[in-house]
Amino acid sequence: MNDILKTLIDTLDQDRHAVFCGIVESSGSAPRTSGARMLVLPDGSIRGSVGGGPVEGASVAKAVKMLAGAETHRILSFDLNSATAADAGMVCGGAVKVLLQRVTPAQRGFFERLRALHGAGERPALVTVMPGDQEPVMALWTAGGGLEGAELPGGLGAELARKAAKARQNFSLEDGGLRVFAEPLVTPTVLHLVGAGHVALATAKVAAFAGFEVVVMDDRAEFANAERYPEAREVRVLENFDGCLAELGPGDYVVIVTRGHLHDRDVLAQALRTGAGYVGMIGSRSKRDAVYRSLLESGYTQADLDRVFCPIGLAIGADTPEEIAVSIVGEMIRVRAGVPA
């Protein structure tokens, strides 16, 4: 979404229009879930996606026509049979509705504010209000300011605030013919993988697939390199593990999988001095107990140690690096979602 917003703002700066496309309703095996976003530029190029295949092709074609004319919005409905579903990468058919909205230079300030709030980690939500057959309205919701740019009936406004405050996924609301689509802009959680061996390699792949941004670090260049970790946002080759973790906050998760107990202990000590939202260390219970004793002797408290997930991962009987990776990422997803253990 951040790339889409940047491109949109650049386009509006050039005094050009664009068409913002989003899936606002889907049923069956839709190619993307409700809220998928795509931007169509005046030259017909796109950013983002609404699922590919016939849905995306028809949406782009209509958006180009809109930009050549004066139409401000259009809802396209697709009822995909088994043949067209296969072209869209679906297992079976489904129904999809895509909302196309013209965006003009006059709206630049709105999108600049949305992007700035997102960049500052404020968790804004892009809200599209559809009042019956009238033109849809884009609005902005924040925890501190509520809904800006549109008005909703009391009950619907309260429900929007309740869901937007904690949601990570797009959602829709409806009341008496008034429909609201909300897209929370959540900053991705950053996974700091300390150690770049076999478990780290599998964990990086699964974590990236689950929406985490991955940072990998190790003191072995043959393990920590971009070729081995193409999905990582950053790969760092360390001189040693001293001071490898900087200031971290709730949106930072640390997984400690170095090649030795001593390194694990030192990295864990660093992690516990940060505000990381998740700290996990691989190892057996006997290893954990030895590391914990060492940290307690160094002045750390039991409350510090209670933050640590060790042995790391969900108890699913994982054995191989790939299975361990699934258990680790599953545990991180649970923490990210706020689900109690």
Question: In the residues, how many domains can be counted?
Answer: 3
Average pLDDT rating: 89
**Helical proportion, percent range:** 25-40%
Strand percentage lies at 25-35%
Task: Outline the low-pLDDT stretches.
Answer: 29-34, 88-92
SS-based structural class? alpha/beta
Instruction: Count every beta strand, where a strand is a DSSP E run of 2 or more residues.
Output: 16
Question: What is the CATH T-level topology of the largest domain?
Answer: Rossmann fold
Largest sheet: 6 strands, parallel
What is the CA-based Rg, rounded?
Answer: 23 Å
The shape is elongated
Give the second-level CATH assignment, the architecture of the largest domain: 3-Layer(aba) Sandwich
- H-E order: HEEEHEHEHEEEHEEEHEEEHEHHEH
**Gap between N and C termini, in Å?**
31 Å
Spatial order of the strands forming the largest sheet: 13-12-11-14-15-16
CATH superfamily of the largest domain: NAD(P)-binding Rossmann-like Domain
- Can you tell me the CATH class of the largest domain? Alpha Beta
Put simply, the count of helices is: 10
